[in-house]
Design brief:
With 375 residues, this protein is mainly alpha-helical. It has one domain: Glycosyltransferase (Alpha/alpha barrel), CATH 1.50.10. The strands form 6 sheets. Strands 3-4-5 form a 3-stranded antiparallel β-sheet. A hairpin with a 5-residue loop joins strand 1 and strand 2. Helix 6 packs antiparallel against helix 7 and helix 8 packs across helix 9. The two termini are 15 Å apart. The model has no long low-confidence stretch (mean pLDDT 97).
Length: 375
């Protein structure tokens, strides 16, 4: 497996260098791709880059990007979805001036992840944390929650949800977005404790995380063996969410964790194509969208490497041969057709897409380190 780690690390390093863009104030931005299609600093893409390839950054680069994003925080607390090179913040998915739903529900959780990753780097400034935590706290307060503490999307006035499904009208209590919120709560609790004298705020976030742990099971679907992506609109089984739950160590019951791992292992042909994963089993289209996306394309049935690393992390224990085959298929696809945003039979979208590489490299690196430690 080390040969694949070497390959995906080299690819990630090249793509990170190729996606740089200098803002008007001199800040070096890391855009989602190397061809200028997404021509801004996207918060969730930066979150993945920092989490999975933080060791390939200089701390000052991430610090400046965090400051650049926080300058765009709205008065009501919303963190931007992205910030353009001239400093203009945009809060919702879609073209500027034509938002796809209300402000994205994952903006703050991903910025929390960036800050958390930054502070793990040698040479990171602990003093910077004191400038940021209150802004992150204010951003978390904007996220709508159900009475039981899960992320909630009002069907009458829907937000764009998790950014890799930001065209999808998932409503009611949300599964994947609640996992992101849970992790951000855990990370913010840690950050507040690092600040010193903020124990009450830390405890509050730990309590919020426990509420997610207590109530997420309400979205489980025993018929499919997966969790529903959403309670109301798009009440469909979420493949990505299952893999992500297992990767981040969400404390579901051991019975549930084993069942999810078994589903991902036994149903690889239903969600994998050339090493890349679709959001729903059998590349099914979503039941409701915020904008039109043709079935089988983009977020409506295409396959993404964004989730491949989480899947590999599960398969390495349950199906080592399948885990190796996933990496082989993915590397072959990238070498023959480019590191694309998403693919499907007869369809490829946007080469030089950074997250497609870093989201494999990170879990691969983590899994190999864990396996070496266990020997």
């Amino acid at each position: 497996m080390t040969e694949y780690l070497h390959y995906f690390t080299g690819l990630s390093r090249r793509l990170l260098e190729g996606c740089k863009k200098t803002a008007t104030d001199g800040t070096v931005l890391f855009t989602p791709d190397g061809v200028g299609n997404y021509d801004a600093l996207w918060v969730r893409d930066l979150g993945y880059m920092a989490e999975y390839c933080g060791d390939l950054f200089r701390p000052q680069e991430l610090e400046q990007c965090i400051e650049f994003i926080l300058l765009g925080q709205r008065q009501d607390g919303w963190i931007p979805d992205r910030v353009e090179a001239d400093g203009c913040p945009v809060y919702s998915a879609g073209a500027k001036g034509s938002p796809v739903g209300l402000a994205n529900l994952d903006n703050t959780p991903f910025l929390v992840s960036v800050v958390h990753s930054y502070l793990e780097l040698p040479g990171a400034s602990a003093a910077a944390l004191g400038r940021w935590v209150d802004a992150l706290d204010k951003g978390m307060a904007c996220i709508p929650l159900s009475p039981d503490g899960l992320v909630y999307n009002d069907p009458a006035h829907p937000h764009s949800p998790y950014g890799f499904t930001d065209t999808v009208c998932k409503t009611g209590r949300l599964f994947y977005e609640s996992l992101l919120y849970w992790r951000a709560c855990r990370q913010l609790a840690e950050l507040f404790r690092r600040c010193g004298g903020r124990e009450a705020l830390a405890a509050g976030y730990e309590n919020r995380a426990r509420r997610v742990e207590q109530h997420l099971e309400q979205l489980y679907d025993p018929e499919s063996g997966l969790y529903f992506a959403a309670e109301l609109d798009c009440r469909q089984p979420d493949v990505w969410g299952a893999a992500f739950l297992l990767y981040i160590g969400f404390p579901a019951s051991e019975e549930r964790r084993q069942a999810l791992a078994r589903w991902l292992t036994e149903n690889q042909s239903r969600y994998l194509y050339r090493g890349q994963a679709c959001h729903l089993p059998d590349a099914a289209p979503w039941q409701k969208l915020l904008i039109e996306v043709l079935p089988g394309e983009y977020q409506n049935g295409a396959y993404w490497a964004t989730a491949s690393g989480w899947v590999w992390y599960v398969l390495r224990k349950t199906d080592p041969a399948g885990a190796r085959q996933l990496l082989e298929d993915l590397a072959d696809d990238f070498k023959s057709g480019g590191c694309c945003e998403c693919v499907a039979p007869g369809y490829r979208k946007l080469p030089e897409y950074v997250v497609s590489a870093v989201n494999v490299r990170g879990p691969l690196r983590t899994g190999l380190m864990e396996d070496a430690t266990a020997l």
